[in-house]
Amino acid sequence: MLKTKKYFLSILILIVVFLTSLAYFGEINQKLFIQKLDYQSELLVSPLAKNPVIKTDNVNRTEDFNFIKRYPWTRECESNTKMLKDFESSSLEKIDYSQPADSSTHQFRITRAVLVYFPIEQVQNFQYEFRWLYRSWIEMQKHEPTKWRTDLIVFARNEKNFFNNSFLNKLNCSFMHKRTSPNDKPMCVLINYEPIKTRKLEPSDIQFSSQNQLYDFILKNINIFDDLDPKMNVFYHFLKNRLSSYGYVDSILMAFDGYKHLKSSGYDFLIRSDMDVFLTPLFAKWLPKHCNDFYVGRGGYSNEFNTNRLSRIAKNLGLEYAGLTNLGSTWYSTPDQFRLVSYLTLFGMAYLSKEEFSSPEREGKLGVQLWPDWHYGVLLLYGQNLLMNHLIQTKQLNIVKLLEYLDYPSHFSTDVNKIIHIHVFHGSDMFSKFDFKAGKYDGTSENIANANLVKFYSLKMALEGKKMLPNELLNLLESQSMLKN
After folding, report:
1. CA 46 to chain centre
2. What count of other Cβ atoms lies within 10 Å of the Cβ of residue 352?
3. pTM score > 0.90 for this model?
4. How do beta strands 188-192 and 173-174 pair?
C-alpha cells in the first residue's frame, strides 16, 4: 500500500513538472512570436499612438498611406482649368498626347512656370545651359497663344557679390519679379533659395526610439501643406542629415519649398526641369489632357535588379508598388501635386540613402562600378520611382510617363514640332553637351539647315544662347513679349 502511494506521488510530481515546463516554453514561444510581429509591423505604428495596434503583413495597409484622403484638394481642379477634363481612375479612354491643346483653350488665361535650380557656385558649368534654355523659352513664345503666359523661375541663393553683375541680372532675371496677374508679361523670376546643406535649422525636440518610428512619423504625422507645422522641422533635419552631400537634392527640394510663392502667384501648371533642356514649339500650345494629371518624362536607369529591389523596399515600408520603370526627372503638373510628390520623393531619397547605400557608395568611392544595377548618382530617380509607384498602384494620382514627348533625347532626328521638351543626355552624338562645352560646335554657322529636327533645333538654340549678348537676348524677349495682349 505504501509503495503504491509513493509510486502515485512520483507520477503526480512528474506531471506537474511537465506541465510547468510546457507553460514556460509556451510563454517563450509566445514572446518570440510577438517580437516577430513587432518587427514586421514597426513601420506601421505611429510614434504618437498611446496604444499601438500590431498589424501583420496579411492586413491591407493601403489606407495607412492614402495621401489623397488626407489632402483631397491635391487632385481637385482649379476653376481656371476646368475647361480641361477631370481625370477619373475608372476611365479607359485612349489619349493622343502628341496633339496640342484644342484651340478653344486659347481664349483662357493660362499661366505656367518652368522651375530650375541654379547652383551659383557652379556658374561656369551651368551658365551656358541656362542660356540655351532661356533662348528656347523665347523661341517657344513665338508659338504660344497670346493669352497664355510661361514664366522662367530660377531658385538660387541670393548672394550680392554674385548677383551685382551676374549674367542673370543682365537677362532681367530678378528677385523683385513676381506674377501678380495672368495679364503680366512673361518674366524671369529669381527666388532666394538656401541649399539644404548650409541651412541653419532650429533644434528638434522630438525624439524617436528607432529609425522605423522616424520614418512612420514623417509619412503620417506631418502636415505636408503647412509650413508652420512645428513638426516640419523633423523633416528638414531628416533631409539635412542624410542628403547634404547629394548633389541633386535641391533640384527637388526647391519644388517643395517654393509652394507658397508658386501658389500665390496663381500658376495653373508647373514644369520641373533640369537646365540642359530645350522648350519646343509644341510645348507652346500643349496642356495636360486632364486638369489633374501628373506627367513625367523618360528615364534610363531601370533594370530587372533595381526594379525588384525597389519593389522589395516598398513592401518593407508598407507601400504598394506598380512596377513602372524609367520614370524621368521632368515633371509637369499642378502646384498642389508638386508639393505632395516632391515631399514623398525627398522622403524616398533620404530613406534609400541611409538604408540601401553604404558609406563608400554615398562617398562615390565605387564610381560607376555598380551602374546600372544600383548607383548612388541616380538616388533622386530611385526615390521618386519608389513613391510614384505607390501613388500609381493605389490610384491616388494619374501619373503618366510621356516617353516620346518629355525628356526627349537631343541627338534624335525627330520633327521638333512633335516633341514637348528636349533633354541633353550623356553621349557624344550630336547634339552633345560635352562637345558643346568643349567648343566643338563654335565654328558652326547659326543659319542651321533642318532646324525643324530635334538635334539641329537643339544645336541652333544652344549656339544662339551662347553667342548672343545678354542685351540681344533680352531685346528678343521684349520684342516677343510686346505681342502678348
Report:
1. 26
2. 22
3. no
4. parallel
